[in-house]
Amino acid sequence: MARRPRQESRRSASQGFGKDLLTISAVPSQAIARLLESARTLKARRRKGVRYQPLDGMTLGLLFEKPSTRTRVSFETGMYQLGGKTTFLSLGDIQLSRGETIADTAAVLSRYLDALVVRTFDQSIVEDWARHATVPVINGLTDLCHPCQALSDLLTIQEQKGRLKGVKLAYVGDGNNVANSLIEAAAKTGMTISLGCPNDHRPDEGVLARAREDAAHTGATIELTDQPQVAVKDADVLYTDVWVSMGQEHEQDHLLKALMPYQLNERLLRSAKPDAIVMHCLPAHRGQEITGGELDGPQSVILDQAENRLHMQKAILVELLSRYGARGNRR
To answer: What is the distance between the alpha carbons of residues 172 and 289, in angstroms, rounded to a whole number?
Structure first.
């Protein structure tokens, strides 16, 4: 189990965003609303062919310890569209693999880069990077949470449903890092989130506790059940994710057996609202967590969802680099 995320002392509701994006729970609701507005604007500009390059001359580092398709490509493409460049840092190609500390590496990279995306295992690792880097550090995924994914999912839900507050999001399956961040996102925006997970595959208890504190202020509702049919009843959004996360391959047989009753299929979809949308952050394993019929069906918005990773990533980059990028810090 990953450690509880460190609360950033540099971030407060009055200040908006802090230097880093490590968890959604540390981002004020007002800042999330600003990101959503920015992402919508950036998406509209892109579709109209409007050139907008506020990050010209800036460089984003991507340090990934886990494989990636959407996170890597959306950040690389987004940075290019905003006028900047990226450099990919594979763990095996830098001196961390030979014993150099995160503290020393972060200090040096802060002199070269304007920001850094870290995709790693334990939450404490990305927190160490943020602690020692003087440039923004963005959590590109840890075993505990996936904030960039959930923020872009808010954009998709808002586009499809016209609002966030009061929308019911039902998540079924493994209570993993994506589920944790969706809980935080729902709590910050006044949504109802209902999670159908086996009792031994529940979301992180620390995440739930902090989210309930936020929910008390926003009017959000957080429901947890081990009955998938209960979770999806009258839902506006049905969401699932892979059952075997990276690093859990040795548990595959157990996970498939335990989670098969939680498959997002036609029967489960019938319990939701007739106009419910189907979401999956991908990659998908057809016939496991979701059937091909639902993944490719008329209620699926997975391609819009995947595209919105690009627009939200751009909003995050503009927000953080315009305030805390290395070029600004050196002035």
So the answer is: 9
* Residues annotated as part of the active site: 119, 146, 149, 241, 281, 309
CATH code of the domain occupying 148-306:
3.40.50.1370
Highest CATH level, class, for 24-145+308-329: alpha beta
Query: Per-residue pLDDT averaged across 270-299, rounded?
Result: 98
- Its pTM stands at 0.93
Q: What are phi and psi of 222, to 5 degrees?
A: -120, 120
Rounded distance, CA 109 to CA 89, Å?
11
Domain extent listing, the chain: 24-145+308-329, 148-306
Q: What is the pLDDT of residues 228-251, one digit of tens each?
A: 999 999 999 999 999 987 666 767
Instruction: For residue 61, report the phi and psi dihedrals to the nearest 5 degrees.
Output: -95, 140
Identical fold at 24-145+308-329 and 148-306?
yes
Q: What is the predicted pLDDT for the residue at 14?
A: 35
